[in-house]
Amino acid sequence: MQNVAHPYRSVLYIPGSKTRALEKAQGLPVDAIIFDLEDAVSPDEKVAARELLAETLRTADYGPRKCIVRVNGADTAWGADDLATFIDVAPDAILLPKVEDTATVADLAARVTGDTKIWAMMETPRGILNAAAIAAAPKMEGFVMGTNDLAKDLGSRGRAAMTTSLQLCLLAARAQGLVCVDGVYNAFKDDDGLQAECMEGRDMGFDGKTLIHPAQVAITNAVFGPSTEELELARRQIDAYEQAKADGQGVAVVDGKIVENLHVETATRLLAKADAIKLLEGA
Ligand SMILES: CC(C)(COP(=O)(O)OP(=O)(O)OC[C@H]1O[C@@H](n2cnc3c(N)ncnc32)[C@H](O)[C@@H]1OP(=O)(O)O)[C@@H](O)C(=O)NCCC(=O)NCCSC(=O)C[C@H](O)C(=O)O
Ligand SMILES: [Mg+2]
């Protein structure tokens, strides 16, 4: 089941070390932000980035955007202090990199307080194979596909080689009602390529896509948001099904296609997603 309470069409990474980008994001129309302390921050900037980010999240206003902090791994020199700092800052979620099993999630789940949730980067072969167990771990809310790291570990090239991994994670996420967002599109000046990959991710079932540059936001929001035609069809399906029920029928027909209870559920969810987007954009 897809999550509609908060949309996650566009999920923008911001290096925790970049003051200007941290400021700029307060005005960008993104659904969520991943404040990154891991791969986007060089080793000699890690400690300063942690301090800058903690101070920023304590004082800045990111409005309705969900604030997710990606910490360094527990096996690095910075992971433990990152966790200690951001458990205290209490963002909407803490994103663990390269999650391979439930142990790191369970450790963090025992330490976070309040409403802070846990997200996991799914980006290693072991992690993907353990996706079902990781999704079921306590306080888990979302998966982020790490397609760059995964390609590195698989020794693969191109999207086609990712299909099984993407689908395994989607299955595991949906089985537990988690959010699941697709990996980044590295060529951030290639709008046509981004649009094609967004459409592919949307059709597979992802809630949205992770992004690396503000120029990628508009296309992503458009592709992962319901279109006017889809909303109009959803309303007609619901009306036709209500009429069929009133006439003692279990099935309606709209545009030559059957509409059953399950299609009405999908249509209702689409309308709820549109309402959630409207609410977010009006906030
Ligand atoms: C890719 C970039 C290095 C490009 O940076 P730059 O050359 O500075 O871009 P621009 O000059 O075009 O920037 C224009 C303005 O936009 C702001 N900006 C740029 N990027 C961001 C951002 N991500 N968030 C917010 N604002 C941003 C600039 O400050 C400029 O502002 P202004 O001064 O007002 O004009 C750069 O975009 C970048 O660093 N992107 C993020 C890279 C990143 O986070 N990488 C790590 C995540 S990807 C990953 O690890 C995936 C996963 O783990 C896997 O394995 O796949
Ligand atoms: Mg990665």
Automatic annotation (TrEMBL):
GO biological process terms on file: oxaloacetate metabolic process
Cited Gene3D superfamilies: Phosphoenolpyruvate-binding domains
Cofactor(s) of this protein: Mg(2+)
Stated name of the protein: (3S)-malyl-CoA thioesterase
Any Pfam family: HpcH_HpaI
Domain HpcH/HpaI aldolase/citrate lyase: 9-214
Binding residues annotated for Mg(2+), in chain numbering: 123, 149
Organism lineage string: Bacteria, Pseudomonadati, Pseudomonadota, Alphaproteobacteria, Rhodobacterales
GO terms for MF: catalytic activity; magnesium ion binding
Alphabetically ordered keywords of this record: Magnesium, Metal-binding
Chain residues that bind substrate: 70, 123
Source organism of the structure: Litoreibacter albidus
Top-level taxon: Bacteria
